[in-house]
Write a structure and sequence with these properties.
By secondary structure, the protein is of the alpha+beta class. Helices cover about 30% and strands about 25% of the residues. The protein has two domains: about 15-150, 3-Layer(aba) Sandwich (Rossmann fold); about 155-240, Penicillin-binding protein 1b domain (Penicillin-binding protein 1b fold), CATH 3.30.2060.10. The strands form five sheets. The protein has a six-stranded mixed sheet, with helices on one face. A three-stranded parallel sheet has the order 1-7-2. The protein has a two-stranded antiparallel sheet with strand order 3-6.
Length: about 240
């Protein structure tokens, strides 16, 4: 398991060392419910970051609103730059549930607007949970709603490696099966495009990196990570999941 590495120029001061010691000890003893009290600016976030680093355990941090969740995400991202700090909140910018107003005999159709950036972050969160253990998730209460079966999510991935054999038609069919859309003109997250024996995929959890799969017949000749905006190759890969 990759260790949590806390990066900060500050050291715990005042009552923080006692709080870190007590919380860590109680968690190791299996105490399930604890409360850390402190005024604004007393370093509660820094204290909990030290507890996470000391115990080396994955953590779920739930905030009661999106604004505070975003603030905590930024703080933990700075404190743990070498670990997977993820952000999981509702991806709706706007949501109008279906409704009926009997007084005016008015039916209101359900309407919603999804934030693509937050959708990407949610995909990144789920990917990190399935692939690594050094994960800190900052979430709103939307995390209590089911993501579905982890087994189903795990099955919706395509492990690729250089030199493996796969027919192009099977590769394209599988991409469609896991809900990627083919679009040879508009390249966006969750889509793929085909140019002869070259298949380019824009992963749903990425924003600045895409995957280029170069085939020779039924063999994967190369896997390259590239910038979807400029097309510039950033690195060559031996495998990709």
């Amino acid at each position: 398991m990759t260790e949590f590495k806390l990066v900060s120029e500050f050291e715990p001061k005042g009552d923080q060392p006692k709080a870190i010691e007590a919380l860590s000890r109680w968690l190791e003893e299996g105490v399930r419910h604890m409360v850390l009290l402190g005024v604004t600016g007393s370093g509660k976030t820094f204290t909990m970051a030290n507890v996470i680093a000391r115990l080396n355990r994955p953590a779920l941090i739930i905030s009661h609103n999106k604004a505070l969740a975003a603030q905590l995400y930024g703080e933990f991202k700075q404190l743990f730059p070498y670990n997977a700090v993820e952000f999981f909140i509702s991806y709706y910018d706007y949501y109008q549930p279906e409704a009926y107003v009997p007084e005016t005999d008015t039916y209101i159709e359900k309407d919603a607007l999804i934030n693509e950036q937050i959708d990407k972050l949610r995909h990144s969160t789920t990917r990190s949970l399935l692939e690594r253990r050094d994960v800190i998730i900052v979430a709103s209460v939307s995390c209590i709603y089911g993501l579905g079966s982890p087994e189903d999510y795990s099955s919706m991935k395509l492990p690729l490696r250089k030199g493996m054999r796969i027919r192009r038609s099977d590769l394209l069919s599988y991409l469609v099966e896991i809900l990627y859309q083919r679009n040879d003109y508009d390249f966006y997250r969750g889509s793929f495009r085909v140019r002869g024996d070259i298949v380019e995929v824009f992963p749903a959890h990425e924003e600045e990196r895409a995957l280029r799969i170069e085939l020779w017949g039924d063999e994967v000749m190369s896997l390259k990570e590239f910038d979807p905006l400029t097309g510039k190759v950033t690195r060559e890969l031996e495998s990709y999941t």
